């Protein structure tokens, strides 16, 4: 055997070696990557089909707002799809490591150290995941709910829930902005659209007003609003006049409340205020203006 032949055999593996490398290493890794990508697309497709079916049932029904069950199902599907995709990629990574011939047992000790380091460094992420888990299971709010979230540090976030996962909650406020809130930073969640809501209307009036006449007018406003074809679909019962809420120096404040469908309290409140102002103006009763008291310059002048 010549020197050139020995050199070629030492540098280039034979054809059988290349075939073993392809079948035992490269091909399994490629197949697992393709399988993970296809499984990911299937999960996204399935979750999109289910959410589209829920949305179609809502659009084809007579309900003006989503039911609590539909909102919870929508949020639950998003969480399940997120967890399923994470599990698919973790399993594919495990199979790829096995295909590379890396001994799994040898990775136990390094994985323990890395897991402990990540546990200390990613406490916020773990806190977000746990908070999101209890948020979903306890049905605190779901997709389409109008919520007010009190966050750590004293800040707040208010808007309509557009997405809920185990880690974050996404809200869209009245300006169209999307607010992303980590679930672990939520101190208090106020759901403004769960089961039913309440519209509260305060009416400031002068102290000299005839309260009997005003009470009659406001009761009539509530009756007309409840029997109005448009408002009757939003109201659960007739608006109620609660009476005098507070007494100030030169005015009294009356309060009217109305139980509404979830999320419709703002629309009902605006409509009631318009009806009240129109009714009082027709009767010649002026709403008490809000005046600011300003001290006289002679009184505040330093001595």
TrEMBL record:
<feature type="transmembrane region" description="Helical">
    <location>
        <begin position="26"/>
        <end position="43"/>
    </location>
</feature>
<protein>
    <submittedName>
        <fullName>Small conductance mechanosensitive channel</fullName>
    </submittedName>
</protein>
<dbReference type="GO" id="GO:0008381">
    <property type="term" value="F:mechanosensitive monoatomic ion channel activity"/>
</dbReference>
<keyword id="KW-0472">Membrane</keyword>
<dbReference type="Pfam" id="PF21082">
    <property type="entry name" value="MS_channel_3rd"/>
</dbReference>
<dbReference type="InterPro" id="IPR023408">
    <property type="entry name" value="MscS_beta-dom_sf"/>
</dbReference>
<dbReference type="InterPro" id="IPR045276">
    <property type="entry name" value="YbiO_bact"/>
</dbReference>
<dbReference type="Pfam" id="PF00924">
    <property type="entry name" value="MS_channel_2nd"/>
</dbReference>
<dbReference type="InterPro" id="IPR011066">
    <property type="entry name" value="MscS_channel_C_sf"/>
</dbReference>
<keyword id="KW-1003">Cell membrane</keyword>
<dbReference type="InterPro" id="IPR011014">
    <property type="entry name" value="MscS_channel_TM-2"/>
</dbReference>
<dbReference type="InterPro" id="IPR049278">
    <property type="entry name" value="MS_channel_C"/>
</dbReference>
<feature type="domain" description="Mechanosensitive ion channel MscS C-terminal">
    <location>
        <begin position="200"/>
        <end position="286"/>
    </location>
</feature>
<dbReference type="InterPro" id="IPR006685">
    <property type="entry name" value="MscS_channel_2nd"/>
</dbReference>
<comment type="similarity">
    <text>Belongs to the MscS (TC 1.A.23) family.</text>
</comment>
<keyword id="KW-1133">Transmembrane helix</keyword>
<dbReference type="InterPro" id="IPR010920">
    <property type="entry name" value="LSM_dom_sf"/>
</dbReference>
<feature type="transmembrane region" description="Helical">
    <location>
        <begin position="75"/>
        <end position="96"/>
    </location>
</feature>
<dbReference type="GO" id="GO:0005886">
    <property type="term" value="C:plasma membrane"/>
</dbReference>
<keyword id="KW-0812">Transmembrane</keyword>
<feature type="transmembrane region" description="Helical">
    <location>
        <begin position="102"/>
        <end position="122"/>
    </location>
</feature>
<feature type="domain" description="Mechanosensitive ion channel MscS">
    <location>
        <begin position="125"/>
        <end position="193"/>
    </location>
</feature>
